[in-house]
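Listing S7. Sequence submitted for prediction.
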Amino acid sequence: MSATISADLLAEAKTYLDITWTDTETDAKLTGTLQRGIAYISDKTGITDVAADDRAKELLFSYALYDRSGSLDAFKRNYRPDLIGLQIRTEVQASEAT
């Protein structure tokens, strides 16, 4: 199931990516990118609400930047330590909650 992208999250992503124009095709494409990014980050880290976690959201916007430039392989290499760190943090928080 695809994540629902709020208007606020879309606006934040557009600001981060310096997208200053409004057009439905760009919004639809960016929404798809954000949905794929949320799924990827959630899968790798276990974070269920990527948009609510500041560090995960920062990674999401970086994911979108790399995706727009056709460099997702570089994102996966460059941000691997960050993804692992978030995964560890999520696991520690889950174990402390039990």
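Caption to Listing S7: primary sequence and predicted structure tokens for the chain studied. Residues 20-97 form one domain. The chain has one domain: 20-97.
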